[in-house]
Design a protein that fits this description.
The protein is mainly alpha-helical. The chain contains 12 helices and 2 strands; from the N terminus they run H-H-H-H-H-E-H-H-H-H-E-H-H-H.
Length: 315
């Protein structure tokens, strides 16, 4: 029997609080929270790779795939059940990452980063040239249902919010268990000394391959949830700036805890929203300033501000 530790208990408490807040959140804040949690899942997969010493600038590939699968399945195949849409998104991400992972798991450092970005930009180029998929404008997705139930249009945002919260917390619980397992710690061992990991009889390439596939699945789920919340998909989801945004959030939140990417994503969305409202034509400068301050004063991210981090606790 698994005994819940402090992190698990706090995640269940966070789930209860976020579900209750659905009743008091204004629509704009509920939407920002939904998008932040969805993108936080993408960053969680990225952090998994960063703990292994690898930085991916191509998570937009799977983020975009997850969103477009939802859109194509709804508009072309008349599939609107959200459970089925998420399963199809995960399967597509599994298939693509299983193939690309065979190549990418051979590379390290800047070569890994550039290759991941290259594959993401290939998808971007294909989508931009695809008139049937809306080219640069993308297209709107069909309203989703759940096991035959179709929520009212005015309650759709709340419904997607509740779904995203529950899914995000469940995936966080799973990832919390994973990073504390031998396979989870093996990633950090590879980052410190890959050769010694081989001496222990483990294959760094297989471990990296598994983490890459897990990161792809998380990104696809995040993309699918973002598409459901926004009701629209476009090629920008695969553009390199989107992948760079995920790296930004990872640096902002930190890599020491599974909850840090989601908190970082929420703070990022809040900063971007107010920066855009304050300076619509130069809001990127504000984000750049925030990133510089994080790098100079909090190199381990906002999570390092918590007192528990002084003792070196990680999850």
């Amino acid at each position: 029997m698994l005994i819940p530790d402090k992190t698990s208990r706090n995640l269940w408490i966070a789930l209860a609080v976020l579900l209750v807040l659905a009743a008091v959140f204004p629509n704009w804040l509920g939407f920002i929270t939904t998008v932040a949690l969805a993108k936080g899942l993408v960053v969680l997969g990225l952090v998994l790779l960063m703990r292994t010493g690898l930085v991916s600038f191509g998570q937009g590939l799977y983020f975009c795939l997850g969103g477009y699968v939802v859109g194509i399945a709804g508009s072309r195949w008349a599939i609107t059940d959200v459970a089925l849409l998420l399963v199809i998104s995960v399967l597509v991400a599994l298939l693509v990452s299983a193939l690309l992972g065979l190549l990418l798991s051979r590379y390290r450092d800047i070569f890994f980063a550039m290759l991941t970005m290259a594959f993401s930009m290939i998808l971007y180029g294909v989508l931009v040239k695809s008139v049937a998929l809306g080219s640069t404008d993308g297209f709107n997705i069909e309203q989703a249902s759940l096991f035959g139930w179709h929520p009212a249009t005015e309650s759709l945002g709340t419904w997607v919010y509740l779904l995203t919260v529950m899914l995000a917390i469940v995936l966080l619980q799973i990832m919390h268990r994973y990073v504390r397992s031998p396979l989870g710690y093996a990633g950090e061992a590879i980052r410190e000394n890959e050769i010694r990991v081989e001496y222990l009889g483990m294959s760094p390439r297989q471990i990296i391959y598994l983490k890459y596939v897990i990161a792809a699945v998380l990104a696809a789920v995040g993309g699918a949830l973002t598409a459901l919340a926004a009701g629209h998909v476009d090629p920008e989801m695969a553009f390199w700036t989107t992948s760079g945004e995920f790296v930004f959030i990872a640096l902002l939140g930190g890599t020491a805890h599974v909850a840090a990417p989601l908190i970082g994503a929420f703070i990022f969305e809040i900063i971007r929203t107010f920066a855009f409202d304050l300076a619509p034509y130069s809001w990127q400068m504000i984000l750049g300033g925030v990133l510089l301050m994080i790098i100079f004063f909090l190199p381990k991210g906002l999570w390092s501000l918590l007192p528990a981090q002084k003792s070196g606790n990680q999850s």
